[in-house]
Amino acid sequence: MGRTILHVDVDAFFAAVEQLRRPELRGKPVVVGGDGNPHRRGVVSTASYEARAYGIHSAMPLRTAYKKCPQAVFLPVDFPTYGEYSHRIMAILREYTPLVEPVSVDEAFLEVTDAAADPLALAEEIRGRIHTDTGLTASIGIGPNKLLAKIASGLRKPNAVTHIPEERAAEMLRELPVTVLWGIGPKTAARLQDVVRVHTVGELCTVPLAALRALLGDHHGAYLYRICRGQDDSPIVTEWEPKSMSRETTYQYDTRKREVLIDTITALAAEVGGDLQRDGYRGRTVTVKIRYHDFKTHTRALTLPEAIDEGARIRETAVGLLDRFALDRAVRLVGVRVSGLTKTAGEERGNGGLWNG
Question: At 336, which helix (H) or strand (E)?
């Protein structure tokens, strides 16, 4: 018997929450990102569908979004509120199956192979529950694996259920751009277009395995050969352990002042330490990231003899690493990361893996 996987994706999550709690924003272009000031540095976290009509999308600089739609309502990110809605939605999903894998605060995979004789009816029921209980809408994809379920959820957004049966996968994927497949970002897509003249999933399926391996390497080439045919055997992961915890900040104005960088590192180290202690972890490797004004990014790391979780000790190590950077250019961004994590004895994570700093 084959698997049945659902991918639940809340539509325009951050913006939808804002429109829900501020009814006067419904029907208006809403952009959520940074501190909500489109004239300062920051990127779009989520844009409402009304804003997307102007070409605004996630990860776009807020200043660019403002140029595209100056009449949009720009709002700051409110993680505590979004987190509350996320926990409510994940709780709804777990009522239908314990096999829930949160991917982010607004999406999750569910395995319902043994929970639904009619997955389409189940997906519609879940979509209705989310709307009734939270006021939000969700798009749900159904497939025989996570890959096809994820692609399906994006085909008819917003507020729809879409099924890609295994026997129709080739037909339904044929005309889609290759970027719908996991592992194909802009750079890989450009190489495929330039070298083998491939733009769609169907065209990718015609490329021999040997040619993909020669172009992208043995591992990546073989991987794309499988997924363009809708093949994916990745499991539902209901529990996971983080590999690292980090915080970073982008300056509104580039700086070359060492004291400013130290103040930033101090604040970031305290936040990372708080995250580690909250979730019951310690880490041995401290890494500092510096991005210069020209966007060149460098990191320096130190592995300690014992694991730590105190902000003061993270700060001490991170400030020491700062001496290993050439501060001959203005700095745009600073980050602090702790990795090599181990669980603190007797502690349990309290957030179900939804938040990692």
Answer: strand 331-343
CATH of domain 14-79: 3.40.1170.60
Based on the residue annotation, tell me whether 107 is a catalytic residue of this protein. Answer: yes
Which fold is adopted by the domain 244-343?
A: Dna Ligase; domain 1 (3.30.1490)
Per-residue pLDDT of the chain (357 residues; tens, 9 = 90+): 689 999 999 999 999 999 999 999 999 999 999 999 999 988 999 999 999 999 999 999 999 999 999 999 999 999 999 999 999 999 999 999 999 999 999 999 999 998 878 999 999 999 999 999 999 999 999 999 999 999 999 999 999 999 999 999 999 999 999 999 998 998 999 999 999 999 999 999 999 999 999 999 999 999 999 999 999 999 999 887 889 999 999 998 999 999 999 999 999 999 999 999 988 999 999 999 999 999 999 999 999 999 999 999 999 999 999 999 988 999 999 999 999 999 886 544 443 333 333
Helix (H, G, I), strand (E, B) or coil at 151: helix
pTM of the model: 0.80
Q: Indicate the residue type of 283.
A: G
Q: Which CATH number fits domain 174-227: 1.10.150.20, 3.40.30.10, 3.40.1190.20, 1.10.10.10?
A: 1.10.150.20
| Catalytic-labelled residue, pool 107, 124, 306, 348 | 107
Q: The dihedral of CA 106, 3, 352, 338: what is its sign? A: negative
Element at 103 (helix H, strand E): strand 100-104
